[in-house]
Amino acid sequence: MAFDDLRGFMKRADELGLLKTVEGADWSLEIGGITELGLDAPDMPMLVFDKIKDYPAGYRVVTNFLNIPKLVALAFDLPLEDRGIDQVRGFRDLIQREFSPVRPVEVKTGPVMENVHVGDDVDIFEFPTPKWHERDGGRYIGTGSMVIQRDPDTGVVNVGTYRSQIHDKNVATVYMSPGKHGDVIRRKYWAKGQSCPVAVVMGGDPLLWSTAHSAIPLGVDEFEYAGWLRGKPIEVIKGEITGLPIPAAAEIVFEGELLPPGTETVEEGPFGEWTGYYASGSRHEPIFKVKSVMHRNDPIILGAPPQFGTYDYWFGKNAIRAAIIWNELDKNVPGVKGVWVPTEARGPLMVIVSLEQKYAGHAKQAANFVSGYYQSAFVCRWVIVVDDDIDPSNHADVYWALATRCDPDSSIDILRGCWSSLLDPILPPDKRERRELTNSMGVVVACKPFYWKDQFPRSVRGSAELRNAIKEKWGKKVFDGAF
Ligand SMILES: Cc1cc2nc3c(=O)[nH]c(=O)nc-3n(C[C@H](O)[C@H](O)[C@H](O)COP(=O)(O)O)c2cc1C
Ligand SMILES: [Mn+2]
Hints:
Strand content: 15-25%
Mean pLDDT: 95
Number of domains: 2
Low-confidence stretches: none
Shape: globular
CATH superfamily of the largest domain: Electron Transport, Fmn-binding Protein, Chain A
Bound molecules: flavin mononucleotide, manganese (II) ion
Largest sheet: 9 strands, antiparallel
Number of strands: 23
Helix content: 25-40%
CATH class of the largest domain: Mainly Beta
Distance between the termini: 28 Å
């Protein structure tokens, strides 16, 4: 089922018992704190904060909306019970089809236009924007956001998720990492001495949002990609100020421009980042001058702050990333049986591949591909390859492989000078200072050595046939239907 907006998704989640409303929380630290603790509870539902301190009832913040496998499955219309590698397999099936763009459809009006403020009427503090973490330098309205821009050379629209801090009634910032598409586009306007038109959406369908934060190739319009994924075009209105396409059912939209560097700047950050640290600190960034605010009645901020938790599924981002890497590996390396990007290692920092070794050097070939591929190369610290009897999404399996099939003396290579970021916490101060953004990467082959794998001691684990036969005969009686 394709959702047209955040509310459709919330309604369905509620029907499935996957939504919980919290009233009376403070926008300062309480919404962030409750969200963080929620990640320590297994299968925590989506959280809807209402009656937030200092704000009218109905002005809401939603968090934990894709932080458990079931909600991710709901957003992408995948089997609800699938988790781990099974869910990655489901994603891979979705994206294996040949891409054919589904263009958005322009409509005259939509719920997002229920309230429109322009000029002096603009006040971006109208919304209950959280201060998420204790050491944050301010309030971030854009975490689960979508930033829309148009490439002035090609006319192609880009949608990306870049964090957005609010500073004054009509002043915000949008932090774009060097090289991300939003950054490439704004620089094209700036090179001509112009401001970059931009629309920032807070609150929309989670599938569209997931497309915004995935590395879709430059030149592909994320609206068209999301339309293809869900098999139905996105309805958009044309922004009054920017002419940009804006989802007609978005919750909150700021339209305006990113001023060129050398004009007005403001201090951005620090912000609790996805690596789990405050690594990039604060620095002056060009301002986002907000010229118009549109919002639905009873608007909802979609919140996706980086946080920690035992059961954090990390916005489903890891499962999507694993599926994209797997899909690409399949085109280049045979025998891949699974890819996992463990949430505990904070997303891109670790990639695990399982494969059926077919020839000498096969496992290393897969590792080498992963270490250089766009989706997996960025700030990657560890690439681990395991045999096909190891489920890469199962910690116990992976630890077992590392502990028993890996000889550190001969199974680990270290790559140096790899693609990194200011957000890498272990980037030393001197390298940070001179912007030498590189890291080293450990490449670990935790597979039975290929040339004597058939002599490798046999595993004690029961065969698949025996285990299935036991489940069939004894599952109900002994294990209470757990299998
Ligand atoms: C919750 C969340 C917050 C993010 N914040 C930022 C950010 O502040 N700056 C940034 O450059 N990328 C950020 N990203 C990563 C980008 O969204 C991602 O690189 C995406 O591919 C960008 O779109 P693009 O490929 O069109 O540039 C964030 C991702 C997520 C899931
Ligand atoms: Mn893009």
